[in-house]
Write a structure and sequence with these properties.
heterodimer, A: 296 residues, mainly alpha, MetI-like fold, 11 helices, flat, B: 319 residues, two-stranded antiparallel sheet
Chain lengths: 296, 319
């Protein structure tokens, strides 16, 4: 008995093979599409902005004249912002992660807490901006200073830091802490001397990556109301400030009025991307250098 | 040589008692610490709940004030948004169409390209190619949105205007496309995760029956990973709805109620930026309209995120 009609199968075979070949090419090309756009984007920004970058541009003050404009104020503002966001998110992010991973019992409240964090991660950044404007800038009357922006950004990236720290803590093998308990150590001693030091590279990597997201964010700071005026360099966390993305935003908007502003925006983008590159490279370095591999 | 402590015998008994006492008190301190730490950590963890409460409360209370001044039906069914005119009108529909259209354009780009990228990376690419392409896609995901906004405004829009003559200098098409490019890595990576978790034995079974790779992908892998793929699409939509800077820069601020992609339109996020950037006086109706729009946005994205989690849990095929 013949179950398979060979002729019929053979007839369709070459068609199926051709479709398979073509579709594999399409899949490859669509992967390339994203990368090609990335290439065009980077090429455009660098070719437009690179020749505008020099020492005067980096160290200069903002100016309405494109030739004299500099972004030192925005660079300092970005650094001060990081000086607020980094410790605040590390404290609350790692604290929450320790609680959830090592202390929290499996009950309804803690499950709800985790769901809440997952939902917060999906809230648009501009909503955090409104929260920051209402609470920090107006209700607590900080004004639009570094501290208000920093707290807002901290809340924004907190869910990401919590989740990445949780993953880092979860990756610490059980037998390390069991050995510690076996030696008579208490829970907190084990957490502080065994779990945290082992998880630290992973925690740092996640924290740096989320911090690099924070310094590229614009929307919350626009809502908080960072002025487009020429303000003096910020000297601390209680000063008014501007950051690199804000400067890109204003210059891009005004590029329809003054053509050179587009070049200034591109040059500022190059500066921002270089900062992000340095941070990401640091994160990757930490991950590859300090993270030990354990066999669970 | 006798032990120094033993040699002064009359003092030693006292010092040992002291030592026991000291040990006791330090142990009590340790015990207090052990009990206190979880409480402190719980308080720290409560910050994220406070954030949620803060968001909901601020949006809600200020929104209530807005609906005291503008009837709720006028807001949700109004097709005219003229906040600055003498007789202001606050219809949110122009903003909703702007948001939905830009997200639809974004998804028209991101869903097929993202899915096909995921298929290539999961099913076709060699391990070496994967190691090269995945980090490059992550770079694409790591670029700040303001940079995409700049790119849309100074490159994509002028380019599209060469092709489509009627295109305005600010329109919803160009930021939509650029948003789509921005979302590709997210959809690709989430869908790829879902497809890679399909066990190899299922692929092997289909291949052994004589299927081509495409047929394995289309009839075995994608159906098995379907819930994860749908979840990635829903999260992509949520991301597009909440995206701010690209649309603020490239889609303009005219509050047209239209479905014409070549025209300038405003999204909910861009409206919020415009109102806050324009220093709306606290207490004015425009200022309160901000919260009503933000609440709408918040509910939209929250529903999307909940839906994504529900889909990926409820419809997951377990192997």
């Amino acid at each position: 008995m013949q179950l398979v009609d060979h002729q019929k199968v053979n007839k369709r075979m070459s068609f199926r093979i051709i479709v398979n070949r073509i579709s594999s090419i399409i899949f490859f090309l669509s992967t390339m599409l994203g990368l090609v756009v990335l290439g065009i984007l980077l090429y455009r920004v660098f070719s437009q902005g690179f020749e505008w970058i020099n020492m005067d541009f980096i160290t200069g003050k903002l100016s309405t004249q494109p030739e004299r404009a500099g972004i030192m104020g925005a660079i300092l503002g970005t650094l001060w912002l990081m000086a607020v966001v980094a410790p605040v998110t590390m404290f609350f992010g790692v604290g929450t992660a320790i609680y959830l991973e090592l202390y929290a019992k499996k009950n309804r409240f803690n499950g709800w807490l985790e769901t809440n964090i997952a939902n917060l991660a999906g809230v648009p950044s501009i909503v955090y901006g409104i929260l920051g404007m209402t609470i920090f800038v107006r209700a607590l009357d900080f004004g639009n200073i570094v501290l208000a922006g920093g707290f807002t950004m901290s809340l924004l990236i907190l869910p990401i830091v919590i989740v990445s720290s949780q993953e880092a803590i979860r990756a610490v093998p059980k037998h390390l802490s069991e050995a510690s308990y076996g030696m008579g150590a208490t829970k907190w001693q084990t957490v502080r001397r065994i779990v945290l030091p082992t998880a630290l590279p992973g925690i740092m990597t996640g924290a740096i990556l989320s911090l690099s997201r924070a310094i590229g964010e614009t929307a919350p700071l626009v809502v908080i109301g960072i002025p487009a005026l020429l303000i003096p360099f910020p000297g601390g966390i209680f000063d008014k400030f501007t950051v690199l993305p804000m400067q890109i935003y204003y210059w891009t908007l005004d590029s329809s009025l003054v053509d050179e502003y587009a070049n200034l925006a591109a040059a500022t983008i190059v500066t921002l991307l270089v900062m992000l590159l340095i941070m990401n490279a640091t994160a990757i370095l930490i991950r590859s250098k300090f993270q030990k591999q354990y066999d669970n | 040589m006798p032990h120094p402590k033993l040699s002064t015998s009359h003092k030693s008994s006292v010092s040992i008692r002291d030592m026991i006492e000291a040990k006791k008190s330090s142990r009590q301190l340790g015990a207090k610490l052990e009990k206190g730490i979880p409480v402190i950590l719980l308080l720290i963890a409560l910050v994220s709940i406070l954030t949620t409460v803060g968001i909901v409360l601020t949006l809600f209370t200020e929104m209530i004030e807005f609906f005291r001044r503008v009837p709720i039906m006028d807001f949700f069914t109004g097709t005219v948004l003229k906040p600055l005119s003498q007789t202001p009108e606050f219809g949110v529909l122009p903003l909703i169409t702007g948001t939905v259209l830009s997200s639809a354009v974004a998804m028209a780009v991101a869903a097929p390209v993202g899915l096909m990228t995921a298929i290539y990376l999961s099913e076709y690419a060699s391990e070496r190619a994967r190691k090269i392409f995945k980090p490059m896609l992550e770079v694409l995901a790591g670029i700040p949105t303001i940079v995409y906004g700049f790119f849309a405004f100074t490159f994509v829009t002028p380019l599209l205007r060469e092709i489509i003559p009627g295109l305005e200098a600010t329109n919803i098409l160009s930021p939509g496309i650029v948003m789509g490019i921005m979302i590709i890595p997210m959809i690709a990576s989430l869908s790829e995760d879902a497809m890679r978790s399909v066990p190899n034995s299922m692929r092997a079974g289909a291949l052994a029956l004589g299927s081509t790779k495409l047929e394995v992908t289309g009839r075995v892998v994608i159906p098995a990973a379907f819930s994860g793929i749908v979840a990635s699409f829903v999260l992509g939509i949520s991301r597009a709805i909440g995206e701010t800077m690209i649309v603020t820069i490239a889609s303009g601020s005219s509050k047209n109620f239209t479905f014409d992609l070549t025209q300038s339109m405003q999204t909910m996020t861009a409206y919020i930026v415009e109102v806050t950037g324009g220093d709306a006086a606290a207490g004015s109706t425009i200022y309160y309209s901000l919260y009503a729009v933000a609440m709408t946005l918040f509910v939209f994205t929250l529903l999307m995120n909940v839906l994504a989690r529900y889909v990926s849990r409820r419809f997951r095929e377990e192997y």
